[in-house]
Amino acid sequence: METKPISFNPPTEDAPAILLPVAGSVFAERAERFATLAEGHKLADWLHFLGRLARAQHDALQALPELPPLPAAALEQARQHHMPPLNATAAERPAVWREVLRQLIAALLPHAPAGSVPLLGGLAAADDIRLEALADGLLHGEPDPAAAGELPLVAAALQVVFTARAAHLDAAQLQKLDTPGVCPCCGSLPAISIVRLSPAVNNLRYLHCSLCNTEWNVPRATCAACGGDKGLALQQIDGSDGKVRAETCDGCKSYLKIVYQEKDPRVDPVADDLATLALDLLVDEAGYGRSGPNLLLVNAAG
Ligand SMILES: [Zn+2]
Ligand SMILES: [Zn+2]
């Protein structure tokens, strides 16, 4: 394992604090990225499957009926109380997510290996009570390990609906929360962080929501879990190109990975995370626990 020095870039005044997801492209770009990463990869079959899943998420999102907008009073109340306006753990969620789940399964079934057809068929036929129980466990950070094969699909459907809702918000009406490691839109944990490079965003680090694909700026060299800035280090696999690193914190013994757009402009937080599980193993073995989940892999939960 190599350890790299940490550089610090203070946020510039005009850089956006919150980047909302772009509904027309977020899942399509992810699908392409999964396909690219799958080439020659040891886990090629799985990454190709995830690419088809992301493509199905894109199609489902484009076909999604318009969801009722958040009432202005609810948005204002969230602002005043420093709460996320879309609460992922609220008892009620748009029921359309279950329809999206069945659309995703229908898109995957024609390409599914024979061994996974019963699981997909069973999930498509599951009643609302079971589906809501699976969603509740996932969104409360207590996924049912017995449903490890089904939960990535449940997560993918919930991502479609929460991403659609987040994309309809106005970033100017949102604010970062007092807890820097929580999504200002839906209150979920980040899957990973990304150092972005674009005309508007120069080398700033954003945490990427594991559920709604919103990103929020957090200074580099700050632990996403405890907010500390001491005892941090960047780890990478020996000989790797440094496109994905793990930021480890000795204060709380956690880590979160970082992907760098300067190394490749097409990096995708979710896809590049899942294509680098060897790095998770390395830092897990060194005694650090992952601080945020990738919902497409139950075992990656922190
Ligand atoms: Zn979110
Ligand atoms: Zn920490």
UniProtKB/TrEMBL annotation:
Keywords: Cytoplasm
Domain of life where this protein originates: Bacteria
Record carries keyword Magnesium: no
Predominant localisation class: cytoplasm
Cross-referenced CDD domains: FdhE
Gene Ontology MF terms: ferric iron binding
Family: Belongs to the FdhE family.
Function comment: Necessary for formate dehydrogenase activity.
Protein's name in the database: Protein FdhE homolog
Organism: Azospira restricta
Phylogenetic placement of the source organism: Bacteria, Pseudomonadati, Pseudomonadota, Betaproteobacteria, Rhodocyclales
Gene encoding the protein: fdhE
